């Protein structure tokens, strides 16, 4: 709009300044609380005003230009220490810095141009806020739909894990990645719903969506849960494949129904009928009862295992039915609402203390190294372009700031996709410019290409790079008669920028994941330990489900997500930098298995009436806690930097694990199947947790201390 008005009033330069301001502030417009979004756009506006003002005076000798360029790049990139939204504000500042080299002022003074840039940012803020009030439910519905679809994918992957699998490790990694993605979506929706509710009060819409969200979290926890370890389940399903088929069909239908709800959130009349699932449950119950009647007491434990697995799926069905009911827009009573004093405990306020800057001014800080690396790469890229007299040397540094990220794997992947996308875009543009010569069609194609590029940037970076290249070439085609020369330099600049980014990430102050993976393992283990203590306390004391239990569950899932992401980054790095990758993978899997077992206990304790905790329960829980504390202590002092290990033999402290509770005469004589199922599940999980805690100590004791 500013450009159109600028052309119409013969003030194109003003229109361009307003357009740049809006464009540079747009990265901060991400899903989340409206107030946070507005503050992010405002900070971006202030930053781009300052940078545009400074950039307007950078027409100085190179002797002074390069240190100033490097210093500004470092300072702007360093803003990222304050989190994800801050990293987007930083990106806005870097865009403004780089493009200040591209735009030569004709009728405006530098200060006027900088102010107009800020006005453009405010113009974007007004549009963003206006759009929110026109369609306030949009980001909630979009994030909620994404959670439904990803939860359905998670259930599908869990379904594939039923029975013995030759590719179980691959499926486990896929589960970890899906869980990490789901945790990220959960955090976004939690911020949208809870902070909006705190600022604007209750609304039926927000309260219903919060309750739906709570059910989805419970579904994820129950999906992770497993009543026994995989080996026992594999043996059973190998001997009785009909159960494997029954449960796979059941979970598949649960997944399909979740996916259907996600695709039709506001069309409850299109939800799949519950009759299909009810029929599937009747089939499994009949098969399980037949199995019980045909087998003797020796298979009673297997019968209980099947029944506990069925109970978990019944819990899922109940949650699914409640979600359908809530999305049917029922009237809620005051008892249905989740109280604000509980909700606010689920949101952690970010630390914006200026002291964080001082704490990160260290070579040990990943963001410090990234900022310094980026500054050096930008200076080198610009010097390279000037030395070889490139047409637009700023395109090289623009490529560098767009591609380079703090992690090696992501930078490498973006470099590759950027080059491929640019080559494809250049080839398409070359073909089109021979067919089309109308500048108005170039303009229309340029605008269309950039809209498609931004819509795909998070989903398919290669395709996004293709359309960004097309948009740049079509826009330049309006101004530059020799379009083939533009295409040539666009490709060359992109390839050089991508190669510089990769080389800098690989050899300049590299930040390899093995230096920090130990902290992520420790944080995940500590969160699991706190979650375990919350579960055992609740199981022993009974009563209402404490909010602290759910908060500790959230933290355990969040830390597991962080650990999964850290391991994924490590797996993308050069093999020479993947110190102890197999052992670290085992530690990651143990943490995930531990969380799965905790989810089993937590889901059972919350959804069933449990009996009084025995003395054996307390004894085992105390032993597991002791093992976890010891593993955390070891993780504090060990180092993954050294490629060698201790080769010491781990000798666990003597501990006689109590006999299988299901063989206890008093339990068998009770003739109460509910008690039998509880005893079986609780004993299985405690034994599995104890085994995992021992494995954790055994693995961590292999590594040398710092």
- The top level CATH class name of the largest domain: Mainly Alpha
Structural class: mainly alpha
Known CATH architecture of the largest domain: Up-down Bundle
Largest sheet: none
Unreliable sequence segments: 662-668
* Fraction of residues in H or I helices: over 70%
Terminus-to-terminus distance: 60 Å
Number of helices: 27
Average pLDDT confidence is 85
Question: Would you give the CATH topology of the largest domain?
Answer: Methane Monooxygenase Hydroxylase, Chain G, domain 1
Shape: globular
Per DSSP E runs of 2 or more residues, the count of β-strands stands at 0
Supply Rg. 29 Å
Number of domains: 4
What are the secondary-structure elements, in order, as H or E? HHHHHHHHHHHHHHHHHHHHHHHHHHH
The fraction of residues in strands falls at under 5%
Task: Fill in the keyword field for this structure.
706 residues, mainly alpha, Methane Monooxygenase Hydroxylase, Chain G, domain 1, 4 domains, 27 helices, 0% strand, globular
Provide an overview of this structure.
This protein is mainly alpha-helical and 706 residues long. It has four domains: 134 residues, no CATH class; 209 residues, Up-down Bundle (Methane Monooxygenase Hydroxylase, Chain G, domain 1); 133 residues, no CATH class; 185 residues. Helices cover 74% and strands 0% of the residues. It contains 27 helices and no strands. The longest helix has 33 residues. The chain is globular, with a radius of gyration of 29 Å. The protein starts with a helix and ends in a 6-residue tail after the last helix. About 1% of the residues have low confidence.
């Amino acid at each position: 709009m500013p450009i159109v008005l600028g052309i119409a009033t013969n003030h194109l330069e003003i229109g361009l300044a307003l357009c740049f301001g809006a464009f540079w502030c747009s990265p901060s417009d991400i899903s989340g609380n409206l107030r946070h979004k507005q503050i992010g756009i405002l900070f971006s506006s202030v930053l781009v005003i300052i940078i545009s003002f400074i950039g307007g005076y950078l027409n100085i000798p190179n002797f002074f230009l390069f240190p100033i360029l490097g210093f500004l790049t470092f300072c702007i990139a360093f803003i990222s220490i304050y989190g994800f939204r801050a990293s987007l504000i930083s990106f806005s500042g870097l865009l403004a810095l780089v493009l200040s080299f591209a735009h030569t002022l004709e009728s405006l003074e530098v200060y006027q141009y900088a102010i107009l840039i800020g006005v453009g940012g405010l113009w974007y803020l007004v549009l963003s806020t206006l759009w929110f009030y026109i369609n306030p439910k949009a980001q909630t519905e979009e994030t909620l739909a994404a959670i439904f679809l990803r939860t359905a994918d998670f259930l599908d992957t869990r379904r594939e894990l039923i029975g013995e699998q030759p590719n179980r490790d691959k499926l486990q990694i896929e589960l970890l990645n899906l869980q990490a993605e789901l945790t990220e979506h959960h955090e976004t929706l939690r911020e949208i719903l809870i902070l909006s509710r705190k600022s604007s009060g209750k609304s039926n819409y927000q309260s219903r969506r919060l309750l739906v969200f709570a059910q989805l979290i419970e579904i994820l926890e129950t999906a992770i849960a497993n009543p026994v370890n995989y080996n026992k389940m594999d043996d059973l399903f190998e001997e009785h494949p009909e159960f494997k088929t029954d449960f796979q069909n059941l979970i598949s239908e649960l997944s399909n129904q979740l996916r259907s709800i996600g695709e039709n959130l506001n069309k409850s009349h299109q939800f799949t009928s519950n009759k299909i699932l009810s029929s599937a449950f009747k089939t499994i119950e009949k098969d399980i009862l037949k199995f019980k009647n045909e087998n003797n007491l020796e298979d009673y434990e297997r019968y209980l295992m099947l029944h506990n697995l069925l109970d978990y799926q019944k819990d899922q069905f109940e949650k699914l039915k409640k979600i359908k009911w809530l999305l049917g827009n029922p009237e809620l009573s005051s008892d249905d609402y989740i109280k604000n004093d509980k909700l606010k405990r689920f949101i952690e306020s970010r630390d914006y203390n200026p002291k964080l800057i001082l704490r990160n001014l260290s070579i040990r800080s990943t963001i410090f190294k990234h900022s310094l690396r980026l500054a050096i790469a930008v200076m080198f890229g610009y010097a390279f372009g000037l030395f070889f007299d490139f047409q637009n040397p700023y395109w090289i540094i623009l490529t560098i700031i767009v591609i380079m990220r703090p992690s090696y794997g992501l930078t490498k992947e973006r470099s590759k996709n950027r080059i491929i996308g640019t080559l494809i875009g250049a080839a398409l543009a070359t073909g089109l410019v021979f067919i089309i010569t109308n500048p108005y069609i170039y303009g229309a194609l340029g605008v269309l290409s950039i809209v498609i590029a931004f819509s795909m940037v998070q989903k398919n970076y290669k395709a996004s790079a293709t359309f960004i290249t097309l948009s740049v070439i079509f826009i330049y085609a309006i101004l530059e008669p020799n379009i083939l020369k533009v295409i040539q330099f666009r490709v060359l600049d992109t390839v050089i920028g991508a190669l510089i980014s990769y080389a800098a990430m690989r050899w300049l102050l590299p930040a390899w994941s093995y230096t920090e993976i130990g902290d992520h393992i420790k944080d995940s283990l500590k969160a699991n330990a706190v979650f375990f203590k919350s579960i055992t306390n609740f199981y022993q004391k009974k009563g209402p489900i404490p909010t602290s239990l759910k908060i500790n569950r959230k933290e355990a899932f969040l830390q597991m997500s962080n650990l999964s992401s850290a391991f994924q980054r490590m797996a993308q790095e050069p093999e020479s930098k993947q110190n102890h990758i197999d052992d670290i993978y085992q530690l990651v899997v143990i943490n995930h298995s531990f969380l799965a077992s905790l989810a089993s206990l937590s889901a059972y304790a919350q959804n069933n009436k449990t009996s009084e905790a025995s003395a054996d329960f307390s004894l085992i829980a105390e032993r597991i806690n002791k093992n976890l504390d010891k593993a955390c202590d070891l993780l504090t002092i060990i180092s993954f930097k050294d490629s060698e290990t201790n080769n010491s033999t781990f000798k666990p402290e003597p501990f006689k694990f109590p006999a299988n509770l299901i063989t206890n005469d008093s339990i068998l004589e009770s003739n109460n199947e509910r008690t039998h199922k509880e005893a079986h599940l609780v004993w299985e999980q405690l034994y599995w947790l104890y085994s995992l805690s021992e494995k954790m100590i055994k693995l961590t004791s292999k590594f040398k201390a710092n």
